[in-house]
C-alpha cells in the first residue's frame, strides 16, 4: 500500500471531512546491547525508515475508532473513553488503547472527546523490529498533537508506551524499544544508559557498508514467558550479589567485579544470565567507543561476541537464527552479525560491505532455505528520525 492510499482508506472507513492529520512512527533495530535495558545497562538501537503511518482526527463523541489497513478485512475496533479495558477481541488495538489508558494512569490526562485513528505499517509483523512500540509511540504523538498536551516530551511518550505495554498489555518489556522509536535520529544510533535514561547520539557513517536485517520468519511460542523468565533469573542473580555488593543493578558491575563475586550466585543458570548481562553491557560501551574512533572491524567483532553470549549464556537464540548468523559469518565483507531484539526467532542484524550485500542475500538465503525450508527476507535499512507529525503527500 502506498502511504497516500491510507487517506483514501481513512475516508472510506471513517468518512471524509474535518481536520485529518498525518503521522509516522519508526520501527527500530538494536545494533548491540541486548537484554541489558531491564538490567540497568546500555543499549545502542536506531530508528528505521520502516514504520507505522497513522492518520487521525478528533471526534465529537466519546468513541475511539481504530482501523488497521494491514488487517483490512477486520472492522474497526471501537472502544469508548468511559471503558478503557484490555479485551482479547481488540487484538492489535490493545496497544494504542493501552496508551490512552496509560496517559490517564500516569499523567492524569483524560481525553474530553474520542478520535479516529487509521494506521498502516511496513514493519514485518512479529519480526522483532518493534511494530508494537512503533504503534504505541505513534498513538502518543497523535494524542499529544490532537489534544494539545504540549507538556509531554518524547521521552514521556516512550515511558507511557512502555507503561501501557507492561500494565495494560501484560508484557514486561524494558524501555529500549519505545525510547528508540520516540527519540530516533536520522543516520545516528542512540547510546542509552537505561539506568537513568541519559543518552547520546552516535553518528553511523558507513561509507562502504550497510545495515542488513535478515528475517528468519520464525517466532517461537512462549516468547513472553521466556522473556519474563530471563528477567526473573537476572533479578535472582542480583539479589545473591547484593548480599556482598552494594549495587542496584547488574549494569553497575564491570567484568572483574562480577568475576570476583560470581560464585555468590547460587543457581548456575542465573549465573550465566547475569554474566551475559554484565559482559553485554561492557561490550556495548566498548562498541560505541570503537565506532567513535573509526574501528568498525572491532565494532563487528563485538557484535559477533554478543551473539555468542546470547546464544550460549542467555539462551535466547534458536536454531533458525543461529543458521542465519553462522552463514553470515562465512561471507567475506560481513563486518559483524548477531541476533537482534528479544529473541526466540525474529531478525538478525549484520553490518555488510556494499559489494557483499548481493552475495550475502544469495548465499545466506539459499543455505537457510536448504536447512530450514523457509524463505528468509532481507532488508538493507536506513536509519531514520523518531515519531512525529508528517505530511504524507510530500
Ligand atoms: C525486547 C524488549 C526490550 C529489550 C529487548 C532485548 O525488544 O521489548 O525492552 O529488553 O527485547 O534487548
**DSSP summary, beta strand count:** 12
Count of separate DSSP helical elements: 11
What would you call the structural class? alpha+beta
Q: Look at the structure and give the mean pLDDT.
A: 96
Q: Strand content of the residues, in percent? A: 15-25%
**Secondary-structure element order, as H and E?**
HEEEEHEHHHEEEHHHHHEEHEE
Radius of gyration: 21 Å
Give the bound compounds.
Answer: alpha-D-galactopyranose
Shape: globular
Give me the side-by-side strand order of the main sheet: 4-5-3-1-12
Largest sheet: 5 strands, mixed
Note poorly predicted spans. Answer: none
Helical percent range?
A: 40-55%
> Gap between N and C termini, in Å?
16 Å
Jot down its keywords.
binds alpha-D-galactopyranose; four-stranded antiparallel beta sheet; five-stranded mixed beta sheet; alpha+beta
Structure description:
The chain has 394 residues and is an alpha+beta fold. It has a five-stranded mixed beta sheet, with helices on both faces. A four-stranded antiparallel beta sheet has the order 9-10-8-11. Strands 2-6-7 form a three-stranded antiparallel beta sheet, with helices on both faces. Strand 4, helix 2 and strand 5 form a beta-alpha-beta unit. Helix 2 crosses helix 3, helix 8 packs antiparallel against helix 9 and helix 10 packs antiparallel against helix 11. It binds alpha-D-galactopyranose (GLA). The site of alpha-D-galactopyranose has 10 residues, from helix 5.
Amino acid at each position: 500500500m502506498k502511504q497516500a492510499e491510507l487517506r483514501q482508506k481513512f475516508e472510506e472507513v471513517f468518512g471524509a471531512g474535518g481536520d485529518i492529520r498525518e503521522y509516522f512512527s519508526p520501527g527500530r533495530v538494536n545494533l548491540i546491547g541486548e537484554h541489558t535495558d531491564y538490567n540497568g545497562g546500555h543499549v545502542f538501537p536506531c530508528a528505521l525508515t520502516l514504520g507505522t503511518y497513522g492518520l487521525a482526527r478528533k471526534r465529537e463523541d466519546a468513541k475511539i475508532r481504530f482501523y488497521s489497513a494491514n488487517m483490512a478485512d477486520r472492522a474497526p475496533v471501537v472502544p469508548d473513553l468511559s471503558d478503557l479495558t484490555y479485551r482479547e477481541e481488540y487484538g492489535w488495538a490493545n496497544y494504542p488503547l493501552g496508551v490512552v489508558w496509560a496517559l490517564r494512569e500516569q499523567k492524569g490526562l483524560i481525553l474530553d472527546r474520542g478520535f479516529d485513528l487509521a494506521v498502516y505499517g511496513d514493519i514485518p509483523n512479529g519480526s522483532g523490529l518493534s511494530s508494537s512500540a512503533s504503534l504505541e509511540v505513534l498513538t502518543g504523538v497523535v494524542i499529544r498533537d490532537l489534544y494539545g498536551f504540549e507538556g509531554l516530551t518524547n521521552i514521556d511518550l516512550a515511558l507511557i508506551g512502555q507503561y501501557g505495554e507492561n500494565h495494560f498489555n501484560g508484557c514486561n518489556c524494558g524501555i529500549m524499544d519505545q525510547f528508540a522509536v520516540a527519540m530516533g535520529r536520522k543516520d545516528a544510533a542512540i547510546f542509552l544508559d537505561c539506568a537513568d535514561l541519559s543518552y547520546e547520539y552516535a553518528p553511523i557513517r558507513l561509507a562502504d557498508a550497510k545495515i542488513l536485517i535478515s528475517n528468519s520468519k520464525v517466532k517461537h511460542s512462549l516468547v513472553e514467558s521466556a522473556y519474563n523468565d530471563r528477567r526473573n533469573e537476572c533479578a535472582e542473580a542480583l539479589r545473591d550479589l547484593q548480599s556482598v555488593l552494594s549495587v542496584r543493578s547488574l549494569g553497575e558491575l564491570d567484568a572483574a567485579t562480577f568475576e570476583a563475586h560470581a560464585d555468590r550466585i547460587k543457581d548456575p543458570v542465573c549465573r550465566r544470565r547475569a554474566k551475559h548481562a554484565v559482559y553485554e553491557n561492557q561490550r556495548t560501551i566498548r562498541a560505541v567507543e570503537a565506532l567513535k574512533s573509526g574501528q568498525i572491524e572491532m565494532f563487528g567483532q563485538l557484535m559477533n561476541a554478543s551473539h555468542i553470549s546470547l546464544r550460549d549464556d542467555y539462551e535466547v537464540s534458536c536454531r533458525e537464527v543461529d543458521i542465519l548468523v553462522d552463514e553470515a559469518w562465512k561471507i567475506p565483507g560481513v563486518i559483524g552479525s548477531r541476533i537482534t531484539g528479544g529473541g526466540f526467532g525474529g531478525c538478525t542484524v549484520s553490518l555488510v560491505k556494499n559489494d557483499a550485500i548481493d552475495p550475502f542475500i544469495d548465499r545466506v538465503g539459499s543455505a537457510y532455505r536448504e536447512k530450514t525450508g523457509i524463505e528468509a527476507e532481507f532488508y538493507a535499512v536506513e536509519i531514520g528520525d523518531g515519531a512525529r507529525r508528517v505530511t504524507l503527500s510530500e
